[in-house]
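Lab meeting minutes (informal)
Scribe: AK
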Amino acid sequence: MKFLGKKGQLGIGNLLPIGITFVVLAIALGLGATVLDSVQDGQTTGSYASNITTDGLSSVEEVSSWMPTIALVVVAVVIIGLVMLFMRNR
């Protein structure tokens, strides 16, 4: 399975692998947040371990907040590529 077409173009056939990648990434971020939250519950407030876990949770939240933007950019690139492909073949 090739990600790029003959001339490095994204096509409709590439949407499924991109979609699966986003689903797997979302599941991994969700599981990571769940694990960090459960680990944090068993720690003493203000300890080094608690502070590291809090930083990890905020990092996972930051990465998760960028997912819609990344998805929008990928879809826009695919749409622009398809429009340019159809315009060129006219």
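Next up, CB showed the second protein from the same session:
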Amino acid sequence: MFVLWEAKSKKNYKEALNSARTRASKLAVSQGRPYEETGPHRDMNLLKDFPLQWLTKRIWNDMIDRWNNERWKTKSNKASLNRMTLVDGEISKHTGGSIPFSMHNYRLVGP
């Protein structure tokens, strides 16, 4: 039960932070800030003036600093490109579907 709760919590937290960045970027653009959501010239420091209601400004600014470093940007861009990779003419979803990994292994290796 704990493993399930932990997995769901990680997913929800990641989605909440992604939503927060998106909301902050939309606010910044609506107020005329020259913010790019994607690309190598993305400067997240422009989002520091748009903190979340459920985080203190200090924590929000620390998160922006973490997201604004080159290592995180490189990792983020690489993941975006990987999600858009074409496999057999379609974008790969990196999922195995409803078939368990043991069945995939059985099909690859055999009995």
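CB comment: DSSP finds four helices and two strands in the chain.
No objections, moving on.
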